[in-house]
Amino acid sequence: MSNLYRFGISLDKDLIDRFDNHIRLKDYNNRSEAIRDLIRDELVRKQWQAGDEVAGAITMVYDHHKRELANKLMDIQHDYGDTIISTQHIHLDHHNCLEIIAVKGSAKNVQHLANKLRSQRNVNHVVVNMSTTGKILT
Amino acid sequence: MSNLYRFGISLDKDLIDRFDNHIRLKDYNNRSEAIRDLIRDELVRKQWQAGDEVAGAITMVYDHHKRELANKLMDIQHDYGDTIISTQHIHLDHHNCLEIIAVKGSAKNVQHLANKLRSQRNVNHVVVNMSTTGKILT
Amino acid sequence: MSNLYRFGISLDKDLIDRFDNHIRLKDYNNRSEAIRDLIRDELVRKQWQAGDEVAGAITMVYDHHKRELANKLMDIQHDYGDTIISTQHIHLDHHNCLEIIAVKGSAKNVQHLANKLRSQRNVNHVVVNMSTTGKILT
Amino acid sequence: MSNLYRFGISLDKDLIDRFDNHIRLKDYNNRSEAIRDLIRDELVRKQWQAGDEVAGAITMVYDHHKRELANKLMDIQHDYGDTIISTQHIHLDHHNCLEIIAVKGSAKNVQHLANKLRSQRNVNHVVVNMSTTGKILT
After folding, report:
1. Within a domain: D4
2. Domain CATH code at residue A117
3. B58 with B131: CB under 8 angstroms?
4. Measured between alpha carbons, how far is C103 from D79 in angstroms, rounded to an integer?
5. Quick one: pLDDT at residue D134?
6. pLDDT for D104-121, tens place per residue?
7. Across the interface, do B121 and A33 touch by the CB < 8 Å criterion?
8. Cross-chain Cβ contact D118/C93 below 8 Å
9. Which chain C residue has the Cα nearest residue B43?
10. B56 and B25 in a common domain
């Protein structure tokens, strides 16, 4: 897995000074790690745009008192059994649930599933966390 | 919780025709629900910008073979015990783990925690899923 | 152009109260206008994703002291003559220029042009402002 | 202005191979330039979040047949005379105008100006192009 490759890059001194200052505030130990993360973010964005195989999470807030809703959401999740890995459920308060669905599959399927959930009555908020299967990040 | 309020809005006919067409493709049953979701997204964005209390998920991909990493990530999570609700762990392949941390707290604390995790060596990707405790979404 | 269509929508009272408060801070006079803008933003985002005909601006910051750069940037702009409408040039300081290129064409061509400009040495920053020809916004 | 500084970074071989492939498609000549742009984007994002002095463009689409609108937009722009550098105006079609306002000032003022314009009736779309005065980019 680790096949480190060392190479040199040239940047203006002022730019790299500002970057050093910025990454210190973000808790990085060194430039290589900070630059690596910028590169990974760029490649993950591209994966989602290209519709590649991705991984991530769909986060959903809803009111569990609407009993038919819970059943309906379960049905939808079963229709996307190939895309969903597992689900984590948190009781935010008496009414609101936070449900986080771990997903892996084509970017398109993940977006379809999110659309399906978002369009349900009494589902209050849905967001997609775009991450990666890790294969591009080695 | 449900205290429905009905009111009228005026839009150009062409605009609403295009919107109707768009939301049909996104699986909405009617305009009220689609407009409600646009409004909620706007309010949730504002909550995160304002640093209010929020809920959401941090998604992280890392290589669990680096044993010290797992311990380090555990330590960091314990430092943010007030912000973290629970964690879901998925084995993506022989090397890569997908860990999804359900969070609730100030937007600032959630971002700090994400920065802390992202800056660790061998943590390959970190994203924050910005959702809400649901209180603004009634 | 104006063919106003009036219809009713139903939202939770608390949600609409929060929205009213939010749009007052953003200088809106009434809900219809604020909701119309949320709808337009959604449709414009979709246009850019779908690769439709779009309009917008490419903003670029560069150091004009690199004379070959100015010529090179001119050459590139001529290659995209069908996409570029006109250019506005501002002298930010002794070194830095802000150049804003008004564009109209396929989303893909606009992105290609932006990539081409961004990849030039001594072009310091390039962003694409995604707007619309207005046809969808009536 | 140019005070090039050379340093080494270490990345996994597979990651840098994927990055090389990606930047070739985006027309970059070499890694230093592509990495420099990722760093600049990060610093510009931070400038806007921190409310520093910024430069950029506000793009606006509106229907010029509404004569009072043109006057109103002019008045607003005069109120923000310190922030606005110049304006470029394009006739998209019989009805729609694309107006691009070059701006320089505090991020907050630029956002206020954009809100003010967006909230006008018959202004169809407003977006802010977040760039920089170039001082951080050397």
Report:
1. no
2. 3.30.70.1150
3. no
4. 27
5. 79
6. 999 999 999 999 999 988
7. yes
8. no
9. C19
10. no
| Residue B95: predicted pLDDT | 85
Q: Read off φ and ψ for residue C74, nearest 5 degrees.
A: -65, -45
Exposure pattern of C17-45 as b/e (b: 16+ CB <10 Å)? ebbeebbeebbbeebbbbbbbbbbbbbbe
Are B117 and B60 in a shared domain? yes
Does the distance separating the beta carbons of C16 and B7 come in below 8 Å?
yes
Q: Do B116 and A27 touch (CB under 8 A)?
A: yes
C137 domain-assigned: no
- For residue A103, is it within any domain? yes
Q: Which of D1, D6, D19 sits opposite A43 (nearest CB)?
A: D19
The token pair that represents B9 in the structure block: 């809005």
pLDDT of residue A83: 94
Burial C92-126 (b: 16+ CB within 10 A, else e): beebbbbbbbbbbbebebbbbbbbbbbbbebbbbb
pLDDT tens for each residue of D11-59: 989 899 999 999 998 889 899 999 999 999 999 988 888 888 999 999 9
Q: Between chains, do C36 and B11 touch, taking CB under 8 Å as contact?
A: yes
* Same-domain pairing of A90 and A36: no
φ and ψ of A96, to 5 deg: -90, 135
Rounded percentage of chain D residues whose pLDDT exceeds 90: 57
Residue A40 sits in the same domain as residue A74: no
Residue of chain C with shortest Cα separation from B136? C15
Nearest to D33 among C44, C63, C119 (CB): C119
Nearest CA of chain B to the CA of C27: how many Å?
15
C-contacting chains (≥3 CB pairs under 8 Å): B, D
Number of CB pairs < 8 Å for A and B? Answer: 152
**pLDDT at D138 > cutoff 60:** no
Q: What is the pTM of this model?
A: 0.82
pLDDT tens digit sequence for A88-101:
999 888 888 999 99
Closest residue by Cα to residue A125 from A114, A112, A136: A114
Q: Is A66 part of a structural domain of the chain?
A: yes
Residue D41 near residue A35, CB atoms below 8 Å: no
Give the total number of structural domains in chain C.
2
C110 and C75 share one domain:
yes
For A66, list phi and psi in degrees, rounded to 5.
-80, 90
pLDDT for the residue numbered A137: 59
pLDDT band at residue C8 using 50, 70 and 90 as cut-offs: very high
Mean of pLDDT over chain D: 89
Contact C43 B16 (CB under 8 A): no
Chain A partners within 8 Å of B134 (Cβ) = 61, 63, 92-93, 95-96, 98, 124-125
Tokens 């050459």 identify what position? Answer: C75
Same domain, D78 and D125: yes
Same domain for C18 and C45, yes or no, is: yes
Would you state the pLDDT for residue C136? 65
DSSP C67-106: HHHHHHHHHHHHHTTTTEEEEEEEE-SSSEEEEEEEEEEE
pLDDT for res C27? 87
D127 and D69, same structural domain? yes
Structural domain containing residue C27: 13-49
Quick one: which of B123, A112, B27, D126 has its CA closest to C26?
Answer: D126
